């Protein structure tokens, strides 16, 4: 069966009935447009992940029980803490009222936590607190100046005595903690003495540093370590990660934050700078950037291809007969996606630009052969049939190679690549169908004018070659090309992979900027590990073990409020409440009213002086006893005490006034603390149902499942950090989930799928060429430019330091599918033009190949301009690959042909 002859007869028939063919094409296009209008585009990352493994199933199960797994994080900075705090509270309240938002948390519910703090305090500390209250009692608090002076006198007398030798059984950790607390108190006192303006409040971050109360120290707010950034965790109402849910959610948060900032500025204050980060913000930026880039690339690709064709052939009819069949094939492939895959993802949607570049090749090849037949004097319809028949084998070979290459991608495990392979394979097939069906009819209706050929070429004269591809020269050129390609392929195996998803975002990405800062400057980050437990006992175990992991910076759980001995702790708390209610608050208020008279302040200064001597003597005793840690702790306290004394000596009058305010602030805080302790008279164990809604919904599911959250200590985008983290996490609980778990699977699936897909793509491509061409010379001439160009591409990537990433890793299989056309077309023309010189073959074949490559580069080169760096890096890699394959075809393939057919004249 002579298939090219049948293809010629079919094309001639289509050319004789153009309107019928175009009517059929329009009907298919209308049906495709209807299908495309109903084709969903899944924009979430989850759509790219495999869902048939345990990690994905655990994550899906968490989403079903708790809703969205990732919070949008609002970052506030650029204002003093006393302005950031009310802004954060007001913003959280405003956000919580919006229907797109389930929760907005700016701080822990400290009132609730402190009211039930007895559940989180160890029984030993509760006993110690009760003992202190019993020993000293309210009666030990001075009520007037004379009693204050008497108390200070007794303290001074004690300091003037020699310190006692440390006992062998001294509780060093307890003593060192006490000294540290004393040192931070002295530091805060010095701050009040030395500040340019009198502080408005106590710095609880300083006072509670190292005491396990960082959240309380910051009034429950989520802040960076330096206290300059405040974080709000905003939970979406929808668990969907699709842009239809994330888009309105992120935009609503941004709008509400902008409205609050505008009101602050209208009131004459400086509004804080507001930034968004977290996975919802990252995915939002990804979608907005890629959507913009797709529109830019598709529009630019179509325009540049048409412009290139018009400039080269100078005929709008040429542009139509090439561009229209390709465009219809792309449209049909998108319509077919509705009944095959049923949806598009960001990856498959982005592939439209690749189809534009690839699909134009076939129209260029066929129209070039039709033009040759017309120049030979054949009638238009006969020339169309002859040209389509003459080009059929080359187009079928090249197009079929692309189909099997993309089909190989469809076999990989990573859904993002496998779906791309299916969409692309069907897209190429339908572009081929459109080219063979529509182009003959369109060419018959709009036959392009033929440009005149040079006299020598039209006469078929043999021209002298410009490149001496004879003997040793051709062999040296081919050997050098093969050697450099082999070097490139070897280098390609060593190319590193960039696992950082944030590096794919635009250079000015707000979410990446703040995410990196959160990792570096706080114990929080968006990529949180999630543990789930069936009951409180298991959750307590998980929280305790996770807190001891070196790869975890912070654990969030409510297990401190649900200790196993809650009844015993509540009983002791009720006793503390009775003791605290015995007049403490009244006496503290009276003590604060006394102030710090001049005489009393003088005694305080004397105590500071004697305290330094006492510390010196205690250091000597501690050193003699071998307590090096205690010596260091005492030295630290001595330094801070000296700093307070120096600040007092600098301005004693101001120091007395500042010290009085400082002590009154301390007593006021103590009064509030005692009042809170007094409320423990009603202490009882609690149940999850008694938690505030924001806490309950975050940590408890409706079926009783308990969640524990762990913030990684280092970025999870470093594979070494991620592997260590997940190894330790799975050691605590093999059922852990969250972004780090899915990202680990995602990254491994991408790399493994790339390796498998590329290997399979090269194998099936070469096998296809061998089966279709059935000629070893034709096979070598068709495949070598592709292999050499691919090797050069990898070598240039290695030399330029280009890394693989999640976007550009697919570039090599795409280049194979795109550039296989060059060698196939050159091979066919080499054997077709047996009576032509090397120069003439290059002119005939090279001109068409150059135009085809130009359309691909015009279509795909626009990708390099994309704002999303993942897309732009893909464009750079594809552009480099196509240029390498084009150079190999135009410069090395003729030398290969000369070696294969020494009778060919240069």
UniProtKB/TrEMBL annotation:
It is found in: Cell membrane. Keywords: Cell membrane, Membrane, Transmembrane, Transmembrane helix. It is a multi-pass membrane protein. The chain crosses the membrane at residues 294-313, 320-341, 347-365, 386-410, 422-446, 779-799, 805-824, 844-866, 878-900. The keyword Glycoprotein does not apply. Residues 219-448 form the Membrane transport protein MMPL domain. GO terms for cellular component: plasma membrane. It comes from the Bacteria. PANTHER family: MEMBRANE PROTEIN MJ1562-RELATED, MEMBRANE PROTEIN YDFJ. This is Putative membrane protein. It comes from Methylococcus capsulatus (strain ATCC 33009 / NCIMB 11132 / Bath).
């Amino acid at each position: 069966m002579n298939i090219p002859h049948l293809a010629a007869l079919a094309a001639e028939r289509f050319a004789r009935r153009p309107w019928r063919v175009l009517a059929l094409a329009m009907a298919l296009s209308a049906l495709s447009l209807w299908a495309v209008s109903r084709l969903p585009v899944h924009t979430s990352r989850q759509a790219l992940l495999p869902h048939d493994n345990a990690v994905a199933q655990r994550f899906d199960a968490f989403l079903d029980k708790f809703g969205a797994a990732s919070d949008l994080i609002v970052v506030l900075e650029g204002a003093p803490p006393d302005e950031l705090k009310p802004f954060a509270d007001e913003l959280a309240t405003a956000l919580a009222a919006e229907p797109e938002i389930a929760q907005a948390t700016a701080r822990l519910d400290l009132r609730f936590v402190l009211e039930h703090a007895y559940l989180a305090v160890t029984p030993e500390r509760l006993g110690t607190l009760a003992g202190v209250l019993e020993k000293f009692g309210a009666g030990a608090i001075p009520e007037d100046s004379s009693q204050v002076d008497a108390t200070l006198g007794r303290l001074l007398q004690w300091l003037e005595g020699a310190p006692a030798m440390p006992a062998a059984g001294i509780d060093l950790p307890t003593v060192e903690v006490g000294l540290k607390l004393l040192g931070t108190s002295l530091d805060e006192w010095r701050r009040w003495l030395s500040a340019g303006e009198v502080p408005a409040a106590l710095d609880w971050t300083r006072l509670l540093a190292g005491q396990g109360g960082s959240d309380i120290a910051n009034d429950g707010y989520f802040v960076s370590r330096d206290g300059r950034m405040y974080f709000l965790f905003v939970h979406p109402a929808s668990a969907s990660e699709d842009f239809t849910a994330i888009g309105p959610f992120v935009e609503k948060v941004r709008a509400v934050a902008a409205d609050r900032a505008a009101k602050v500025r209208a009131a004459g204050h400086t509004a804080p700078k507001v930034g968004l980060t977290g996975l919802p913000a990252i995915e939002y930026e990804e979608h907005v950037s890629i959507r913009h880039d797709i529109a830019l690339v598709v529009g630019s690709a179509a325009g540049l291809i048409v412009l290139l064709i018009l400039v080269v052939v100078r005929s709008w009819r040429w542009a139509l007969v090439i561009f229209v069949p390709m465009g219809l094939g792309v449209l049909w492939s998108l319509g077919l996606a509705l009944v095959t895959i049923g949806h598009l993802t960001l990856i498959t949607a982005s592939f439209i630009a690749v189809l534009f570049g690839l699909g134009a090749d076939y129209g260029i090849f066929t129209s070039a052969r039709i033009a040759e037949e017309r120049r030979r004097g054949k009638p238009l319809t006969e020339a169309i049939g002859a040209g389509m028949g003459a080009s059929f084998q080359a187009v079928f070979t090249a197009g079929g190679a692309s189909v099997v290459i993309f089909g190989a991608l469809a076999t990989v495990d990573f859904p993002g690549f496998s779906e791309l392979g299916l969409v692309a394979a069907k897209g190429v097939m339908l572009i081929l169908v459109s080219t063979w069906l529509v182009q003959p009819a369109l060419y018959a209706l709009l036959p392009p004018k033929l440009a005149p050929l040079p006299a020598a070429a039209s006469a078929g004269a043999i021209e002298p070659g410009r490149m001496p591809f004879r003997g040793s020269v051709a062999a040296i050129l081919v050997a050098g090309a093969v050697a450099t390609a082999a070097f490139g392929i070897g280098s390609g195996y060593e190319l590193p992979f960039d696992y950082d998803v944030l590096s794919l975002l635009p250079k000015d990405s707000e979410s990446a900027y703040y995410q990196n800062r959160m990792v570096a400057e706080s114990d929080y980050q968006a990529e949180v590990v999630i543990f789930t437990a069936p009951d409180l006992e298991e959750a307590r175990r998980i929280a305790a073990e996770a807190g001891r992991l070196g790869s975890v910076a912070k654990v969030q759980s409510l297990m401190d409020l649900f200790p196993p001995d809650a009844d015993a702790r509540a009983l002791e708390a009720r006793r503390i409440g009775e003791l605290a209610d015995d007049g403490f608050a009244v006496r503290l208020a009276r003590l604060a009213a006394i102030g710090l008279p001049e005489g009393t302040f003088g005694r305080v200064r004397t105590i500071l002086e004697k305290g330094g001597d006492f510390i010196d003597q205690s250091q000597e005793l501690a050193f003699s006893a071998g307590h090096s840690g205690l010596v260091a702790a005492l030295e630290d306290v001595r330094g801070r005490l000296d700093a307070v004394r120096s600040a007092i000596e600098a301005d004693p009058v101001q120091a007395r006034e500042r010290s009085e305010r400082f002590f009154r602030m301390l007593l006021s805080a103590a009064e509030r603390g005692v009042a809170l302790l007094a409320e423990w008279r009603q202490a009882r164990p609690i149940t999850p149902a008694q938690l505030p809604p924001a806490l309950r919904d975050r940590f408890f599911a409706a079926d009783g499942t308990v969640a524990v959250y762990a913030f990684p200590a280092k970025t999870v985008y470093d594979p070494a950090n991620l592997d260590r983290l997940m190894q330790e996490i799975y050691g605590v609980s093999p059922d852990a989930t969250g972004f780090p778990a899915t990202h680990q699977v995602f990254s491994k699936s991408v790399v493994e799928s790339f390796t498998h897909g590329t290997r399979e793509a090269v194998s099936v491509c070469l096998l296809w060429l061998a089966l279709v061409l059935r000629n070893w010379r034709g096979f070598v001439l068709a495949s070598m430019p592709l292999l050499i160009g691919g090797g050069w591409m990898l070598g240039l990537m290695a030399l330029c330091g280009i890394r693989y990433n999640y976007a550009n890793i697919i570039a090599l299989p795409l280049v194979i599918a795109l550039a296989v056309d060059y060698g196939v077309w050159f091979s066919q023309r080499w054997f077709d033009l047996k009576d032509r010189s090397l120069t003439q073959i290059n002119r005939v074949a090279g001109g068409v190949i150059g135009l085809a490559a130009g359309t691909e580069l015009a279509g795909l080169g626009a990708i390099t301009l994309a704002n999303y760096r993942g897309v732009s890096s893909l464009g750079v890699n594809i552009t480099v690959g196509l240029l390498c394959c084009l150079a190999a075809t135009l410069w090395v393939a003729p030398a290969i042909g000369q070696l294969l057919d020494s009778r060919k004249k240069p």
